[in-house]
Amino acid sequence: MHEMGIVVSFVKMTEEYAAKNNAKKVLKVVLQLGEISGIEARYLTEFYPVVVEGTMLEGSQLVIETIAASVFCTDCATTYNPMRSDLKCPTCGGEHCDIIDGRGLFIKEIGIEEKTHG
Ligand SMILES: [Zn+2]
Q1: Contacts of residue 36, Cβ cutoff 8 Å, sequence gap at least 6
Q2: Protein residues placing their CB within 5 Å of the ion ligand 1
Q3: Ligand 1: centre distance to CA 32 (Å)
């Protein structure tokens, strides 16, 4: 299970961003999670409150958006979602494909509360 390490690293990235942007605290983090990333969203949600405890992210909201998987069939050039067709190309039945989308985990948005000046 590698989700804990993933949460730790994106929390660290968020903290760096928040510090650079003069944030008092982080209110919200929006993640985009690929359908075939191999990462379980429910673990991210579970570990998040534990990891953010005592950081600028404590009490913030975690939003996870799923990115649909998308692959390109190298046999017939069809673009399809492998999750909906049992990993085979729906056009030619082939299994040779290049992954276009749905593999990664990205931070899409970080909502911060800025320090008040003066
Ligand atoms: Zn095909």
Answers
A1: 69, 82, 83, 99, 102, 103
A2: 73, 75-76, 78, 89, 91-92, 94
A3: 27
C-alpha span between 63 and 78 (Å, rounded)? 32
Do 56 and 18 touch, CB atoms closer than 8 A? yes
CA of 96 to the centre of ligand 1 (A): 8
CA of 111 to the centre of ligand 1 (A): 42
pTM for the whole structure: 0.86
CA of 70 to the centre of ligand 1 (A): 13
Fold classified for 3-67+102-114: hypothetical protein PF0899 fold (3.30.2320)
Distance 38 CA to ligand 1 centre (A): 24
Tokens (6 digits) for 96? 């040779």
Whether residue 78 contacts residue 91, with contact meaning beta carbons closer than 8 Å, is answered with: yes
SS3 54: coil
pLDDT digits (tens, 9 = 90+) for 59-83: 999 999 999 999 999 999 999 999 9
